[in-house]
Amino acid sequence: GWPLEWTEIIVIFCPIFIPLLSHFNVDPILFGTMVAVNLQAAFLSPPVAMSAFYLKGVSPKHVTLNQIFAGMMPYMIIVCICLMFM
Hints:
By secondary structure, this protein is an all-alpha fold. The chain has one domain (6-85). It is 76% helix and 0% strand. It contains four helices and no strands. The chain is elongated and about 50 Å long. It starts with 5 loop residues before the first helix and ends with a helix.
């Protein structure tokens, strides 16, 4: 997980790495897709998992954070598989 929102991550991360794309012959579309998928992984994974805490705030009181994490695991696995194929 990462404690920053996606906008701050993009503003900090992209100006550093975008100039390097042409030097290493990396497709900008692939780079953008990988950044988006990595951000999704960061928002799903503990310890920060901002999306889990958002869901905890809007879910009924009987739903625990552990139940939310258990429900998010299949999606986290899908995100990790997508990253491996990239």
